[in-house]
Amino acid sequence: MKLYNTASKRKEEFESLEPGLVRMYGCGPTVYDFIHMGNARAFLLFDTLRRYLEFSGYKVEFAQNFTDIDDKIIKRANAEGVSSAEIAERYIAECQIDAVGLNIKPATYNPRATDSIKDIIELIQLLIERGHAYESGGDVYFDVRSYPKYGKLSGQPLEALEDGARVEIGVQKRSPADFALWKSAKPGEPSWESPWGDGRPGWHIECSAMIRAQLGKTIDIHCGGSDLVFPHHENEVAQSEAANGCQMARYWVHNGMLTINNEKMSKSESNFFKVRDASKEYGYEVIRFFLLSAHYRSPLNYSKDSLVQSKAALQRLYTTLDNLTFISRNSDTESLSDSERSALNDFAGYREAFISAMDEDLNTADALAAVFDLARAINSAVSGGASREFAVQAAAELQELTDVLGLLYESAEPQSLDLEIEALIAKRQAARKAKDFAEADRIRDELQTRGIVLEDTPQGVKWKMA
């Protein structure tokens, strides 16, 4: 398996530090609002990469944090007249609802910044002891010039970063690019005791401390959106490696940005779409399908047309699965025929194409193409009827691959028809058997007015809601 490593700017063969085990971290949300489509793209990268690693035989220890103390959280809490903790709890719960809807597997660990204060203070103290951080007026800053490799992840030279850095009035820094590890307490803000006075942690140190506490000093994969490469991930690298004296992450994996109707997503432009809102109109699984329809590093444009097309494409897969479910229950033939055995053998080629695509830097777009090729082959094989055993095995082939992508997780079971509708279907079948086709057509039309569409197949009558 190859992954594009932001640190080396090239694809690299993936090899975990410990055979058979992957330690992986993904930057979670700052919980002051519902998650948006950009958040969802990053979270689905984490989830799909994890699923494929597990499919490939690895055990994955995955940590995704919640940033539950931040300027935006404090601002919203003050505006609503509630505590920061109340805002954080509210939107952690909402985030988890969306994660379940998107079929994102629960992380092994979900550390919170406010639960990690002790670890954060210990890490800051270590940085001070090693000459990489300093206290200034109750604040603590990382000294970027103490770490010669600063800028290696983003590829930006320190001189350019210092020239472009903004310095707040009254803040005493050794370099304009130095960043806060600890912020002194301010009125109306939550704070914790520390050796430098009451205050709260800076954003960047939180992730470094949580990774160190949950996964260790060196992890295999660190994921996140490309907008986090600088400054967040750059600062994580500097402070973690300066404190621990070793490499922080072997592979840095970043997803591309999402545009809205070909424009940059921005709250100021009123084109900032929340997952919850889109799910009400299209459903969570359609959102997941759409976000996986392009390679994770490629730009992806969000539009209503894209979601409509994703919904139609997803329905084609469900139709294939529904057909197989129906055949497995209603076919008069139990055992495989020679032609069915041959078809099942041929399906291995689609599985190989799927694996080849995923091995090539998690190319979900090409992997989906292999899934649709498999579905078309299945549809062709069962068009004239099939055995129950073939339907069961074909469904297993399809679901094995879609499970890796986290798709086809909604119930494929038909809805229960009430007794009156069932009686009408039976009556229509009796009319057909008696060659009373006018009556059979009348009943079919009546069912259509009730939103029931019938389909005559070699295995019997199938139905679906219109």
Describe this structure as you would to a colleague.
This protein is α/β, with parallel strands linked by helices. It folds into three domains: 16-255, HUPs (Rossmann fold, 3-Layer(aba) Sandwich), CATH 3.40.50; 304-405, Anticodon-binding domain of a subclass of class I aminoacyl-tRNA synthetases (Four Helix Bundle (Hemerythrin (Met), subunit A), Up-down Bundle); 419-465. The protein is 48% helix and 15% strand. The protein has helices at residues 37-55, 71-80, 84-101, 117-129, 158-164, 203-214, 229-244, 275-282, 284-292, 304-330, 338-359, 364-382, 388-405, 419-433, 437-449; strands spanning 2-5, 10-13, 21-26, 59-64, 133-136, 139-142, 179-184, 199-201, 219-225, 249-255, 258-260, 263-264, 300-302, 452-457, 460-465. The strands form five sheets. Strands 4-3-9-10 form a four-stranded parallel beta sheet. A four-stranded antiparallel beta sheet has the order 5-6-7-8. Helix 2 packs across helix 3 (84-101), helix 4 (117-129) packs across helix 6 and helix 14 (419-433) packs antiparallel against helix 15.
Topology:
Blueprint: E1 2-5, E2 10-13, E3 21-26, H1 37-55, E4 59-64, H2 71-80, H3 84-101, H4 117-129, E5 133-136, E6 139-142, H5 158-164, E7 179-184, E8 199-201, H6 203-214, E9 219-225, H7 229-244, E10 249-255, E11 258-260, E12 263-264, H8 275-282, H9 284-292, E13 300-302, H10 304-330, H11 338-359, H12 364-382, H13 388-405, H14 419-433, H15 437-449, E14 452-457, E15 460-465
Parallel strand pairs: 3-4, 3-9, 9-10, 11-13
Antiparallel strand pairs: 1-2, 5-6, 6-7, 7-8, 11-12, 14-15
Helix pairs in contact: 2-3, 4-6, 6-7, 8-9, 9-10, 10-12, 10-13, 11-12, 11-13, 12-13, 14-15
